[in-house]
Design brief:
This protein is α/β, with parallel strands linked by helices. Helix content is about 20%, strand content about 30%. Strand 9 and strand 10 form a beta hairpin.
C-alpha cells in the first residue's frame, strides 16, 4: 500500500471563496480512540472543545507577495513571487515569463491597476528557481509590496487571480507577524466572536509563528517519501507561549494545534529537547518532515483543512490520525460534498 492517500476530487468541491460566514464551514470530527467520524460546523467548536484545552494559533500574516510586471526590454509579461530579503537587502523571488531571463535584466513592476510603478533589477539566479533582485525604490520591502503586490493565492483558487475581497478573506483575524506567502488555512475559519465564545467556554489560547513558504504545496514526486526534499520555513516559539503550553501539558490538558503549521512548530521544538517533554523558547528554520510512523511529543489534537494527495501536509495528517481512519474520513468528505482546500471546510482530529 502506498504511504499516501490517493483520491479523486470532483472539481466543484474545490472552494473558490470562503462562505459568507466563516463559522458556517463544516467541521468533521475524527475521533482516533473511538475510530468514529461525526459531522458538525465550525460554530460548534465551543461545545466540541473541553474546558482547559489549549488552542495554539499561528499568528503569521500573509504579505501581498504576488508581483506582476513587464520585461522592460521586450515588453513581455512577467510574474514574480516575493520570498523574503537577504541581509544585504536584496529581494529573494521566483519568477516566470516566456523565454529565458538574464542576469542584470530589468523588470518594470506594475501596480494593482496595471500601471508602471517602479523598476526591479534581476541580479543572479541562485538555485531552485530563485533569483536575487533589487528594486529601484528606496521603500522597505513590505511597504513597497503593500503598494503594488497582490494576494498570493494558490493556483487552484481562480487560477491564482485575486479579487478585492481576498485581501481580507485570505488572512486570519489574529494575523500579527508579516512574512507568509500562503495562509495558515485552518486559522481562516475563526472570527473574533468565535474566539470570544471559545474563550468563554474555558479554553486557553497561545500563539506561535511560522511563515508559510512556497514549498508547502510542493507535491511529492518520488516513490520513496524519505527522499523528498522537505522545504524549510522560519518559525518562532516565544518564552511566554512555551511556558503556557508546558503548563497545560503538566496539568494533563490537551494541546490542540490549529493547523499543520502550528504542529510543525511545536514538534520541531519538542524534537530539539532530548532530555524531556518541556518546550523551550526557540526561533529559526525548521525542515521537520512529519510522516507515518511518527511519535507526537507536543501536540494532542489538530484542526486542519483538507489537503491535496501526495503532499507533506496530508502525510502529517495521516501521521496524527492514522492512515486508514484518515482515508475513510476523506472518502466520507467527498461523499458528503465537503468543500476542499484553502477556502474549504475543516477536520478536527482528537
Amino acid at each position: 500500500m502506498e504511504p499516501w492517500i490517493e483520491y479523486t476530487l470532483p472539481p466543484e468541491l474545490v472552494a473558490q471563496e470562503p462562505l459568507n460566514r466563516r463559522v458556517d464551514a463544516r467541521l468533521m470530527l475524527v475521533d482516533r480512540k473511538q475510530g468514529t467520524i461525526e459531522h458538525h460546523h465550525i460554530r460548534d467548536l465551543p461545545h466540541l472543545l473541553r474546558p482547559s484545552d489549549r488552542l495554539v494559533l499561528n499568528d503569521t500574516k500573509v504579505i501581498p507577495a504576488q508581483l506582476r510586471g513587464l520585461r522592460t526590454k521586450t515588453g513581455g509579461r512577467w510574474q514574480g513571487l516575493f520570498l523574503g530579503t537577504t541581509g544585504a537587502g536584496e529581494w529573494k523571488i521566483v519568477c516566470k515569463t516566456r523565454g529565458r531571463l538574464q542576469p542584470l535584466e530589468k523588470i518594470t513592476l506594475l501596480d494593482r491597476d496595471g500601471k508602471p510603478a517602479t523598476q526591479l533589477w534581476l541580479l543572479e539566479q541562485v538555485g531552485d528557481g530563485e533569483w536575487l533582485a533589487r528594486p529601484e525604490s528606496e521603500l522597505p520591502a513590505l511597504e513597497l509590496l503593500d503598494q503594488l503586490g497582490r494576494v498570493p493565492l494558490p493556483p487552484y483558487i481562480r487560477g491564482g487571480q485575486m479579487v478585492d475581497t481576498d485581501v481580507k478573506d485570505y488572512q486570519t483575524v489574529f494575523a500579527r507577524s508579516p512574512g507568509a506567502v500562503a495562509a495558515p488555512t485552518a486559522g481562516l475559519h475563526f472570527t473574533a466572536d468565535l474566539l470570544k465564545a471559545i474563550e468563554q467556554s474555558g479554553v486557553f489560547f497561545s500563539s506561535v509563528t511560522l511563515h508559510v513558504g512556497r514549498g508547502t504545496f510542493r507535491p511529492i514526486d518520488v516513490e520513496d517519501v524519505s527522499q523528498h526534499p522537505m522545504h524549510s520555513e522560519w518559525a518562532e516559539l516565544t518564552e511566554v507561549a512555551a511556558r503556557e503550553i508546558n503548563a497545560s501539558r503538566q496539568a494533563g490538558e490537551r494541546v490542540i494545534a490549529v493547523g499543520t503549521t502550528v504542529t510543525r512548530v511545536l514538534e520541531s521544538v519538542a524534537t530539539k529537547n532530548t532530555e524531556g517533554p518541556q518546550l523551550d523558547s526557540w526561533q529559526g528554520e525548521t525542515d521537520l518532515f512529519i510522516r507515518p510512523p511518527y511519535q507526537f511529543r507536543a501536540v494532542d489534537a489538530m484542526l486542519t483543512n483538507f489537503h491535496f494527495p501526495r503532499t507533506t501536509l496530508l502525510l502529517l495528517v495521516q501521521a496524527l490520525g492514522g492512515s486508514e481512519l484518515i482515508r475513510a474520513a476523506y472518502e466520507e468528505a467527498i461523499r458528503e460534498e465537503y468543500r476542499f482546500y484553502s477556502y474549504g471546510d475543516a477536520m478536527l482530529i482528537v
